[in-house]
Amino acid sequence: MSNQEFFNSLRNKIGAGLVEQGIDELLAFIQEQEIQSALADQCRQLRSEHRRLQDERMGSRLTFEAFNAAVSNLEYNLYRACTLLEQELSGRTGQMAGKANMEVEVAEPKEGNALLQKGIQKYSVQDYSGAIADLKAVLAQDSGNAEALFYLGVMREETGFLDEAKALYTQAYQADSQHARAINNRGVLLLQEDDNASALQDFNCAIKADPNLHVARFNRGLVYMRLGNFAEAGEDFDFSAREGIYLKEVFNLRSLVRINLGQYEEAINDCERAIQLDPNNYQNYFHWGLALYYQGRYRESARYLSEAAQRQPDHPDVLLLRGSAFSLFGEHSRGQADIEALLKLKPEHGQAYFWLGYIRQETGNFPTAIEAYNTCIHFDPYFKAAYVNRGKILMENDLIDEALSDFRTAQQLDPDWEIVPPLIQEALNKQGGGGMFGVFRKWLKT
User: Which residues 6+ apart lie within 8 Å of 314 measured at CB?
Assistant: First the structure.
């Protein structure tokens, strides 16, 4: 069962009133996943609270209405625990979510909106069943009340009913086109669906409606980053840094933006600041290692990638980059250990086979290097470097026609790759000779 299927099943059980079973299953899941989270303690507290409520109800110390309201609030908190755990698991995979605006704005009651403010006040003190009842009562009187729609959307989002939340945010924005928080929050949900274009449109609308909604600038930077618009992303993250919001995320993300812009030393500065704020986040060390790697400082890079590996020992990106870094400064056995560990996790990882081929090529094991490059090309036929390296081995062993074929394929994949034309010319100069190492022909099938 996938994580998504598990959480969907769990929400169905909570909705059916199987609260204690849901708590037990969530606790077992946390333990199985080896998640170090305060959510486990919260779940135990919810279970104790549920049992206390049942005891008080059985002893007639609690009215039926009070019992139902208390259980409804408990169910809400359990739904929210599911949502928070899903977000925590997404963070493990390196996915960065956008930031919804959940801030409660309780104003002094004005004529005609006392019930609305009463509902918002109840939400702020975690009386969720009371808040929902009041907000629905507001909508019964005024179906286009944007604030009531917004807060109901917030509560559906917190409990993981995202389609319903998105619909409520949409209604709030349709009722009030200046409701920046609603359109920002809808953008976050679209971002989670990988609908980057629609999310960008929503964040732009939110910023236009309220230039002081700084969370929307952060979210827009995240979309720009996903779209590869790194200069624009950098501008939004610079704004967030100046405003002092979400700093540990900003420095983490901006470091990667700066790497993509070739601003390696600035990226390293961001990594240092991110580590000060969040020393256990493997990405901060990974980005530092990546910045060094792109500067050709492979030995230093491996040091920081090892710091990342201490925090995420089985992360494919960490294993691949550290394995290649080790290999590039001659630590082939350590590089091969990382690559082989990666292939145990992902047996069809094309780039891992490329680096296995590189290591074998560097250590003079040419037939098995050819095998590895063949496998790389099988799983990733657009990986141009595999054709070049295989072609070099073939050319060195006088298999010129085969080498030319590889070099020309690499050129087709990247016509501007400047290392390929000299290799083609070298092969043409050698054409017509030899073939004395025909033993290599049996390794050519891809």
Answer: 341, 345
Number of CB atoms found within 10 A of residue 134's CB: 22
Q: Tokens at residue 148, please?
A: 């009531």
In this structure, what token pair is assigned to residue 199? Answer: 């999310």
CA distance 403 to 388: 8
Q: How far is CA 32 from CA 26, 36, 300, 402, in A?
A: 10, 11, 36, 51
Summarize pLDDT for 401-419 with one digit per residue, the tens. Answer: 999 999 999 999 999 999 9
Cβ-contact 267, 239 below 8 angstroms: no
| Separation CA 178–CA 146 (nearest Å) | 10
Give the distance, in angstroms, between the CA of residue 393 and the centroid of all CA atoms in the same chain: 39
- CB neighbours (10 Å) of residue 322? 31
Phi, psi for residue 395 in degrees, rounded to 5 = -65, -40
Contact 300, 292 (CB under 8 A): yes
Return the SS3 of 48: helix
- Tokens matching residue 28: 């077992």
pLDDT tens digits, 168-208: 999 999 999 999 999 999 999 999 899 999 999 999 999 99
228 Rama sector, left if φ>0, alpha if ψ -120 to 50, beta otherwise: left
What is the DSSP annotation of 136-187?
HHHHHH-TT-HHHHHHHHHHHHHTT-HHHHHHHHHHHHHH-TT-HHHHHHHH
**What is the pLDDT at residue 434?**
46
User: In angstroms, rounded to a whole number, what is the distance separating the alpha carbons of residues 101 and 2?
Assistant: 29
Q: Can you give 381-394 as a three-state secondary structure string?
A: CCCHHHHHHHHHHH
Radius of gyration (Cα) for the chain, nearest Å? 28
pTM above 0.90, yes or no: no
What CATH code would you report for 368-446?
1.25.40.10
Q: Where are the domains of the chain?
A: 3-89, 368-446
